[in-house]
Amino acid sequence: MPEPLPSCRRLIALAASATATLVLTVATAQAALFPGEVIDGPNPGLLAVGGADMDPADGTGGVVYLREDGGVPHVFVSRIVDGVWQPPERVDGSLAPPASDPVIAAGTRGKLIVAWVTEGVLYASIRQSVAAGWSGPQPVGAPATLPAIDMGFNDNAYLAWSTGEDVHAARLPRGATQWQPVSGPLDLDPARRAGGQPNLRPSIAVSAEGLALAVWGEVDGAGRSHVVARRIDGTRPSPVPADLTVDELEGRAGGDADAPMATIQSDSSFGWVVFRQAFTDGATTQVRAIARHMRGSLFEPPVVIDGQGWPGDDAGWPSMAIQGTGTGFSAVPLRSGPIFGMAVNSDDEWTPFASRLDSAPVPITGRLPVFYSEDKNGMVAWPAPDGMLRMRFVTGIGFQPEQQITKPELGPVDWNAGVAMAGDRYLNAIIVAIQGAGAERRLVSAVNDREPGNFSPASSSRWYRRAPARLSWREPTETWGDLRYTLEIDGRAVGTTRQLSYPTRNLRLGSGTHLWRVLAIDSRGQASATPTRLLKIDRTPPNVTISFRGSRRAGRPVTVDVRAIDRDSGSKTPQVFFGDGTMAYGRHLRHVYGRGRHTVTVRASDNAGNVRTAHRSIVIR
Questions:
Q1: Hey, which residues does 273 pair with through a beta bridge?
Q2: What's the CA gap between 3 and 385, in Å, rounded?
Q3: What pLDDT, in 10s, does the model give residues 492-543?
Q4: Which of 418, 350, 337, 421 is nearest to 380 (CA)?
Q5: Statement to judge: residues 130 and 49 lie in one domain
Q6: How many CB atoms lie within 10 A of CB 43?
Q7: Which residue of 150, 162, 373, 409 sits 20 to 30 Å from the alpha carbon of 271, by its own alpha carbon?
Q8: Is residue 273 domain-shared with residue 296, that is, in the same domain?
Q9: Could you report the per-residue pLDDT of 365-390, keeping only the tens digit for each?
């Protein structure tokens, strides 16, 4: 790749390419950032972050990194379960030589796959679930360097790596424990040098269907670097790799292309590849960031995503993140430090202008960490001049205000040691880096933790004779689980539980209408509440009085007046037994008696089911 221009020219915005600014239709999740959660350290042996990943559905995942053990670099993983970091675990324990290039992929129910290189051999270790342990290191390929890994929604995983001359891949089907080699090499031309150096490193993305898109860099006989893409179906690569290198852009001849990154939608027919490429612009050369859309077996014309014009600053390594239907964004650092972002919608249309993301430029090497969730919210992070990490959320109304995500008291971030980002479908997310120097080095995470989702009580509008045995509620949406619930009655907390119900036997709830709700509280103290509901209790039966009106002579009508009063739930129509074998419902009943003494019995019930029986005699002459 040619050296960028020695000075930064004035930034020129991209010309408008659409009739209106695109808006991503999303809802912003209610979440809070928690910076400075220490995962490992202080430890001077913390060397580098290899990567982080998280399952979109259940929020389990982890970070892989290199840490010295006995003075030798080895592979360690810290898992995140229910939003809480677990103690570090060494994964390459049976291998004594130093390790390098660790990568990680997360699947459902806590499944993790970690791969790394030891003495030129690519190894992988699998953890099948949260409760399972790590498998022993399994050799996948050799010689190997610079691996890439991804796992789809259905737990199909792929590895890609370079031998230094060729690019190879392997597949691990769902539920399998042995890697299957993909027919290869994948190279466009096996006679060329493919991969083998960081800017030509493979990148791989896996669709929900279990197919993969791999990209990498190849160098032709004339020394020009190309970006090559190839789809993989199981262990079969597509018949013809695609050279994505652009021969000409806006009348300027294309040169070296490198730094590719693959993304893919749930439907494996669609995806994006971003990379950078040099173009001759008169007497100078300018490096641009390019995105090319995959549609079926073809790649559509290039889209420039670096926020520049001609002439302009040189683009660094581009990053891109999309969700299952193709909505997402890109982030591109420029040689002089500014960072530009653009959004793309599910119709493959980009915003007509790039947005400046950072407020203070810092020249950046490598790729910016990005993430975009299934509910169409995202994140991008970068280093600031003061040594801290800063970031922006990406939502339906664009890039949100810049904010700091590291604690100054933990020391400067070691950007060159790697920064990794991952999240789930609800934007529970992690950003992991190494902070501090010497004996004060720490592996640190900023956590974006969404508060528990909306939920509701399982309530009834009925009246109860006594409180139901348990008050219950529905489970809120919360992939990071580990929730505790506080029950409030009449504005007072009466108990806490981790169950979805609470017993009432010791609450001594008297007659009347009570207000109750439940708070769901996560491991970081964030809470959401149910709507307030009524709990209606009536422990006492109605008060009943009986009186008579009219003549008390045989054959003439008598009116039996019944008064049944219940000040809580209200009374139902009383049942009146006249004492001569007849019965009726009502409060004012006319009845004709024969001679004699008759006992009137009234059975009155309320809407809670309480019953009172009253008696009164009448003598008919």
A1: 262, 292
A2: 23
A3: 999 999 999 999 999 999 999 999 999 999 999 999 999 999 999 999 999 9
A4: 421
A5: yes
A6: 17
A7: 162
A8: yes
A9: 999 999 999 999 999 999 999 999 99
DSSP code at position 374? T
> Dihedral (C-alpha) 157, 163, 164, 168: value to the nearest 10 degrees?
-50
d(C-alpha 331, C-alpha 352), whole Å: 15
Give the pair of three-digit tokens for residue 26.
């999303």
Within a 13 Å sphere around the CA of 193, how many CA atoms are in the beta-carbon half?
11
> Is residue 16 situated within a structural domain?
no
Q: From CA 505, how far away is CA 209, in angstroms rounded? A: 51
Task: For residues 204 and 228, give the distance between their C-alpha atoms in angstroms, rounded to a whole number.
Answer: 12
Angle at the Cα of 303 (from 298 to 307), degrees rounded to 5? 160
Residue 517, amino acid: R
CA angle 211, 214, 220 (to 5 degrees): 150
Q: What is the CATH number of the domain that holds 509?
A: 2.60.40.10
Q: Cβ neighbours of residue 410 under 8 Å, at least 6 residues apart? A: 36, 38, 435, 436, 440, 442, 444
Domain finish residue from 424, 450, 476: 450
3-state secondary structure of 110: helix
Q: Give the pair of three-digit tokens for residue 504.
A: 């009432």
Domain enclosing residue 518, as ranges: 463-537
Residue 355 lies in a domain: yes
- 471 and 430 within one domain: no
The domain that holds 339 is classified in CATH as: 2.130.10.10
259 and 367 co-located in one domain = yes
